[in-house]
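[SOLVED] Need 3D model of a two-part complex

Original post:
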Amino acid sequence: MIAQRIMFSCMAVLFAVCSFAQTQVEQWGRFETVLHYKANGNAFTDVRLTATFSNGDTSINVSGFYDGADVFRIRFMPPATGNWSYQTSSNIRLLNNQKGSFQCIQPAAANHGPVKVHKQYHFSFADGKLFYPVGTTAYAWNHMGQALQQQTLQSLKQSGFNKLRMCVFPKNYDLVIEEPELFPYEVKQQATSKTDKWDLTRFNPAFFRQLEQQIDALQQLGIEVDLIVFHPYDKGRWGFDAMAQEANFRYIHYLTARLAAFRNIWWSVANEWDLVKPKTHDDWVALTKEISKNDPYKHLLSIHGSTAKYFEYWMPEITHVSVQDEAPVMHWGAASILRNVYYKPVVYDEVGYEGNLQHRWGRYSAEEMTYLMWMATIGGTYVTHGETYRYKDNTDTIFWAKGGTWKGKSWMRAAFMRKILEEGGGPLEPADISRDMHTATAGKGYYLLYFGKEINEYWVFNLPTKNGQFERAKPGDRFKAEIIDTWEMTVTPIAEEFVLGEQNDYRYYDKAMKKIKLPMKPYLALRITAIKK
Amino acid sequence: MIAQRIMFSCMAVLFAVCSFAQTQVEQWGRFETVLHYKANGNAFTDVRLTATFSNGDTSINVSGFYDGADVFRIRFMPPATGNWSYQTSSNIRLLNNQKGSFQCIQPAAANHGPVKVHKQYHFSFADGKLFYPVGTTAYAWNHMGQALQQQTLQSLKQSGFNKLRMCVFPKNYDLVIEEPELFPYEVKQQATSKTDKWDLTRFNPAFFRQLEQQIDALQQLGIEVDLIVFHPYDKGRWGFDAMAQEANFRYIHYLTARLAAFRNIWWSVANEWDLVKPKTHDDWVALTKEISKNDPYKHLLSIHGSTAKYFEYWMPEITHVSVQDEAPVMHWGAASILRNVYYKPVVYDEVGYEGNLQHRWGRYSAEEMTYLMWMATIGGTYVTHGETYRYKDNTDTIFWAKGGTWKGKSWMRAAFMRKILEEGGGPLEPADISRDMHTATAGKGYYLLYFGKEINEYWVFNLPTKNGQFERAKPGDRFKAEIIDTWEMTVTPIAEEFVLGEQNDYRYYDKAMKKIKLPMKPYLALRITAIKK
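Solution:
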């Protein structure tokens, strides 16, 4: 964003309006135009400002927002190259009918656009590059002091994570008690209570500018931001979980006006929506629709409940399933059920955390956390990692809440798993649904087989005759295999080749019944790839 | 039905119309009135006949149907006692505006009304009596010869099954090749092909009368009929899977007009809907809605796909989930996922069959079939049993298709399981969702704990502190326990009492850490019940 601002040029000074705008923006970059106007009343609520951006047959309507100090901004993420022109619309004459244009150029190498649903169950960037979500969580890292924020960014940089769950509102929890420096609202002149101190009609632009810098900093690291719009971790401290629906909508309008043009944004309507006691289920349906409606780009959107609390993920506004539930990834064969039910991508965004907390959800071993990630992978779904180590009192950093440094061992395994996925033949699905719980396929002769906690001395080379939606293997097909140690993070090629024999009871065995000798260890996988003729 | 027909009395002879009707009918029994009219054209399609039944503020509109030989019938299942009057409506003057009334009396002891959804995830009869579906399947038993039909009814009588999946249309499959005696349609004067031999505008009343007798015979045995309206097992032999949508709708109208007044009917829109190649997904949505719309009583309704093929079970017309998928019941913790997703009762109507077929879905051991039933139970869901033994050629009876005699061992275990359920404290749910995969609760101090394939020497008495939606146990609560051997079908009380100690890491252990000695065998369960103070 800083780089783009250098490109600003003052286009016109007309009466009280000064319009700054860029002349060139990358595809999926962020165009921003600035308008000045001094409102008499409350510029957040009294001024309506939108703009229509047009390029050939395409027209996209976006909302502007008041950024304080008599500055209004309109942001736009151009989805296509070429010449874009725009025209504003406002109830304020001086902001109305402002026009401009810019050139949208090819994206830079690292810019692949926003992430979208790919082939029903998976994700890719807008330019088609596959995106395998290997995420982690740091709910309130953005509300910690600057030093800790920088440390968190450093930790993320050294990790392989490409998605981060984080909250807009600060978090109040027995493990996270820090008071933030910035709040999303102005303080009222006359507060009547601890939570009724905010003027919910006046946002604090400094708060949102910090959030934007954080989102951009994550974008620089190649990390998608799974931004949690509401959450229950307030408990009467600030009152952001208990605003009236009118205020919730106003907040959504402001948030989406500011952030929808950030290409690495995903919307998570809530964390643990069902634990937000002041809101009803119908409130959540309305909030989900409102966020979607106000996002002109239809970024990925989901809503996340407490353990095993499922929402209507079939709603058309919801692009993917984001659930808290470990049951689907603890044992064989369950991870795929939700794919089959919803016909959408499934991300198990909470399945427990590697850590040492007293809470049972926060004391998994690194091995278990890694196992759960692989169990999701083998089912054609995704698990989000998390870390909850605490060695001191509640001022200690726990990555899950505050960010900081890595203390565990599964974060490295997540990076290794991402590498395996990205080296692979494409998005995975179960090769033989509900029958073979261990074997995933990406088609074109690519199989990934996971043994989980099973310890085997050897494995007779065999593949299912079924192959998901893909073309089936056939007798005579030749394969090579590699042993993947998901814990040691090693890949060991097997020297031998394998050749499929005739179909034998829903399987093809190697025609000489060749075996692969396995180290007597858990957490192994096999990568099996066809040898091209 | 035979008993009720004796009560018929001729109410009026008016011109060509003769109206027979009963004067007294049980609540949820079947009232039937008969009208005579000789139609010039096609009485199935040219005559529209409905009746409105009224009792106080309640009015219910039902369709009549043509039963051949100039006879029209109107059936009605009164949902409440008292005086019901009715009035017909027809495009035929002689059938129009016919009136009558009858007295609806208290139901007999064995008549509990139709089965409904109970407490979101379970079932009960209309009178409140709980219904635990312990079903089996005999898809085409009703298309076999009379002797085999009688044998099937005898087998069902000696079993504990209370639900049967069966098809309206005959079945053509490598294991079921018999040609039925009766078909649902009249044969055309001039057939153009093997499948284009039916006059799809003229039903064969004899076919439907046989079906009705079968449904009534099952009712006498206390068995709910999960009636499969469409299926893919035709494959060009008769063409009933490939009728035009107009003919499908006509069939639905006729079927529901005849059968909706049978209290033991459930509608299964299809078996393996996705394998019916002539129909699209949207066709199934329309057919599902059409059946529901034409059933004035809103009997239970679902639709069943092939392995792991899920439908939009969130549709309001669909009362419960009826799926084919073994993945949810093969390993711990997955059975409940679908409950959590759909907020509806879940019946795993196909999870594989006890048998000896070459097909892998038809060669489970009796132990495995029994295990799957219990795995569903412990997850607060239901599994349908099935048997697929074949010892000779394709003329051999396989209960799953043709009925006949039991050849397996799990059918008895299903009866035992039903007994345990019906003795229990009510519908079960996981006590500690997604965390304790073994323990179900019915509240009021009732727990059912299943060990599955685990073999244990002893078990330290302990219960989860969580207890689903029910009141939690507390320190000092006293319990007794019984060992249930689900395979041997025995219940062995433990002499000792157990007393809960203080909460210990999400569990209450017996305060003296008392153990229960277990036989070193798989497939054991514990029934734990609070001792009333």
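Edit: Residues 458 and 517 of chain A are 4 Å apart (CA to CA).
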